[in-house]
Amino acid sequence: MAVEHTCCGTEFFLQIVIIVLLVLFAGLMSGLTLGLMSMSLVDLEVVAKSGKPKDRKYAERILPVVRNQHLILCTLLICNAAAMEALPIFLDKLVSALGAVLISVTLLLLFGEIIPQSVCTRYGLAIGATVAPFVRILIWICFPVAYPISKILDCVLGNGHVALFRRAELKTLVNLHGNEAGKGGELTHDETTIIAGALELTEKTASHAMTPISQTFAIDINAKLDRDMMNLILEKGHSRVPVYYEQPSNIIGLILAKNLLTIHPEDETPVKNVTIRRIPRFLLINHVLQLIF
């Protein structure tokens, strides 16, 4: 009787251990499914090349494992399903069928879904890198079943999951990383403006960078640099002031505002006596064609 009692106690303890291992295994598979699959290959490559030193090591370990995303997804889901299906079988030997269902659902929901996914959402990179060798083993074990399914998914859905941003999306992403967005970004306003401007270059024409002649501040070559004119130039705040002859559309050059520092307003020096710099010009295509033909 003592031997039989000891055997029953050992079997009970072994089943408890198996149940705990199944719950932990299911939780690990569920967490890895969210942690590994939530990051695209582009995200991992960015982290591997320009992340923190520790994150770079993590990303380099994970990248070879998740390169075939459908295969790793099928492997994790198969292992998770196997653990979830095996848990009621061992619980049924300890409690009633109803109790086995209730306990298995509670254990899997709490320790197999909620807690693992919450942890892997925050520390998915570190956990994924730590268990990467174990995941490789699971891939080889589940390969006969997971590989055909993954190939079907590749044919139906495609095997390219490169989540590259379009220009408009990339511009919004840059703006969100600005320190003015209030999200902890490190980019200054000038940096975000420069990057956004570079992304818009392909959509802009020369007319976008030009100021209409009617809105241009220019001075007549025959005008005098008296106090009123000097105050007007100072008020406009331009470093270069166009100079025209007879009519505003006939721009002949420009003067540098810094060259006016040595001029006294009381002398009323004519503009034509100041150094007038030549400016580059360009003609519209239709005007050029008219001149040629």
Automatic annotation (TrEMBL):
Spans through the membrane:
12-34, 97-116, 123-147
Could you tell me which PROSITE patterns the record lists for this protein? CNNM (PS51846)
What InterPro entries does the annotation carry? ACDP, CBS_dom_sf, CNNM
A Pfam family that the UniProt record links to this protein: CNNM
Gene3D superfamilies assigned to the protein according to its UniProt record, in alphabetical order: CBS-domain
Q: Tell me yes or no: is Membrane among this UniProt entry's keywords.
A: yes
Q: What keyword terms does UniProt attach to this protein? A: Membrane, Transmembrane, Transmembrane helix
Which terms in the GO cellular component ontology are assigned? cytoplasm; membrane
Q: Which ranges carry the CNNM transmembrane domain?
A: 8-191
Per the UniProt entry, what is one GO biological process?
Answer: intracellular manganese ion homeostasis
Keyword field contains DNA repair: no
Name under which the protein is recorded: CNNM transmembrane domain-containing protein
Q: Can you name the source organism? A: Linum tenue
